[in-house]
Design brief:
Blueprint: E1 6-9, E2 12-15, E3 21-25, H1 35-47, E4 52-56, H2 63-72, E5 77-80, H3 85-94, E6 98-101, H4 103-106, H5 109-121, E7 125-131, H6 144-161, E8 167-172, H7 176-189, E9 195-196, H8 204-220, E10 226-228, H9 235-248, E11 257-260, H10 271-283, E12 290-293, H11 300-303, E13 309-314, E14 317-322, E15 325-331, H12 335-349
Parallel strand pairs: 3-4, 3-10, 4-5, 5-6, 6-7, 7-8, 9-10, 11-12, 12-13
Antiparallel strand pairs: 1-2, 13-14, 14-15
The structure holds iron/sulfur cluster.
Length: 350
C-alpha cells in the first residue's frame, strides 16, 4: 500500500494522514434563499461535526447567495455541477473551495481543461464524482465496478496531464456490492483521496444500515477519506450518522457519546421524550464524554455505571448521576438545564 495523496479544500486536508471528514449536502435551491439563515444552519451542522458543505449550483441566479455563503461559511463549501462547464467556472469565481464534476457529462475535453485551469487559478479542489448511472459506453464488456474504476483512472490521467492534482474521487452506486468493489479496486490502483458514499441510500434507518455496512467495511480497511451519508431526510441526521460511523470505528474521538436503553416494562421515566429534547444539543458539544439516558431507577443506574453522566427517573422525579454516583435529584422541568450544567462542570474539572 502506498502513502495516500492529499487534497486541500480551503486548508482542510482530505486524505494523507488527515482524519476522515464528514460532509453533507444542502437540500434546497439557492435562488432567493436567505443566506444568513443558511449560514446559521451551516454553523449548527459544523458544531455537530460536519466539515464540508455541498450545494447544487445550477444557475447564475444562485450567484449572490452562493457568494455570500462561500465568503462567510465556517467550513469549506463545495459546488455540485452538472453538464455545464461555465457553471463550474462561475462557482469557482463565487469562491467555491471545491467543485464536484463528472467529466463525462461536461462534454468535450477542452471544457474540462478550462475548469481545471479555473480551479488552479482559484486554488480549489475538484472531486471527480462518478456513479453507475452516468458511465461511458461499456465497449469492453467490463463489470460495472471495473468500468467505473477504469473511467476514474482515465479522468485522473487527464487531470494529471494538465498538472492538476488537487483531486478527490468518488465511485458511487445504489448497489452496495458494486460500491464496495469499486472503491476497493480503485484503492489498490491509486493513492488519490476517496469520498465514500452510497447513492440513493433511502430513508434514515435504511441509509444508516446500508451506509454503515458499506462504508464501515471500507473504512476498516483504511479506504476512504471523507464520507457523506445520503439520507432522504434531515441534514442533521446525515451528519449524525456520519459522525456515529466514525466514532463506532474509533476514527473520531471528540463529541458526546449518547447511550440510551431501549426501555422495557420497568420503565417509569419518559426517556424517549427526554432524549429527543436533549439530543440535538448534546450532539453539538465537543466534550469527549458518555451520557446515558435510562428508562428506570431500578436498573438504569447500574446499567449506566460506565457513563460520565447518567439520567434516570420515576415520573417527574429525575436523578442525575456523575461518574456512577448520585449527583442530584431534580424536577423533570429542570432536568435539561441541570444535565447541561452537570456536563459543563465535568468538562471544566477535566
Ligand atoms: Fe428496562 Fe430500566 Fe433497563 Fe431501561 S434501564 S431497559 S427501563 S430495566
Amino acid at each position: 500500500m502506498f502513502s495516500k495523496k492529499s487534497a486541500f479544500v480551503r486548508g482542510l486536508e482530505i486524505g494523507g494522514k488527515a482524519p476522515v471528514r464528514v460532509q453533507t449536502m444542502y437540500d434546497s435551491t439557492l435562488v432567493n434563499a436567505d443566506a444568513s439563515a443558511i449560514l446559521r444552519y451551516i454553523s449548527k451542522l459544523a458544531a455537530m461535526g460536519c466539515e464540508l458543505m455541498r450545494f447544487s449550483f445550477v444557475s447564475s441566479e444562485d450567484v449572490p447567495v452562493f457568494t455570500r455563503i462561500c465568503k462567510a461559511s465556517p467550513i469549506p463549501i463545495v459546488a455540485d455541477i452538472h453538464f455545464d462547464y461555465k457553471m463550474a467556472i462561475l462557482a469557482l469565481e463565487c469562491g467555491a473551495d471545491k467543485i464536484r464534476i463528472n467529466p463525462g457529462n461536461i462534454g468535450a475535453k477542452w471544457k474540462t481543461l478550462e475548469v481545471l485551469k479555473a480551479a488552479k487559478d482559484h486554488n480549489a479542489a475538484i472531486r471527480i464524482g462518478l456513479n453507475t448511472g452516468s458511465l461511458p459506453e461499456n465497449t469492453k464488456g467490463l463489470s460495472k465496478s471495473d468500468l467505473m474504476v477504469e473511467t476514474a483512472l482515465e479522468y485522473l490521467n487527464d487531470f494529471e496531464s494538465a498538472a492538476f492534482y488537487n483531486t478527490v474521487v468518488s465511485l458511487k452506486s445504489s448497489t452496495l456490492d458494486i460500491t464496495y468493489d469499486s472503491y476497493k479496486k480503485f484503492a489498490s490502483l491509486s493513492d488519490y483521496p476517496l469520498h465514500l458514499g452510497v447513492t440513493e441510500a433511502g430513508s434514515t434507518l435504511t441509509s444508516a444500515i446500508r451506509s454503515t455496512w458499506t462504508l464501515g467495511n471500507l473504512l476498516k480497511e483504511n479506504i476512504g477519506d471523507t464520507i457523506r451519508i445520503s439520507i432522504t431526510g434531515s441534514l442533521e441526521n446525515e451528519v449524525q450518522a456520519g459522525v456515529e460511523i466514525l466514532r463506532t470505528l474509533g476514527l473520531r474521538k471528540t463529541g458526546v457519546r449518547i447511550v440510551s436503553c431501549p426501555r422495557c416494562g420497568r420503565h417509569s421515566f419518559d426517556s424517549q421524550g427526554f432524549l429527543a429534547e436533549v439530543e440535538p444539543e448534546l450532539l453539538s458539544l465537543s466534550s469527549d464524554i458518555t451520557v446515558a439516558i435510562m428508562g428506570c431507577q431500578v436498573n438504569g443506574p447500574g446499567e449506566a455505571k460506565g457513563a460520565d453522566v447518567a439520567v434516570t427517573g420515576i415520573g417527574n422525579k429525575v436523578f442525575l448521576y456523575k461518574k456512577g454516583e448520585l449527583y442530584k435529584q431534580v424536577n423533570r422541568a429542570n432536568a435539561k438545564d441541570e444535565l447541561f450544567s452537570c456536563i459543563k462542570e465535568l468538562s471544566v474539572n477535566e
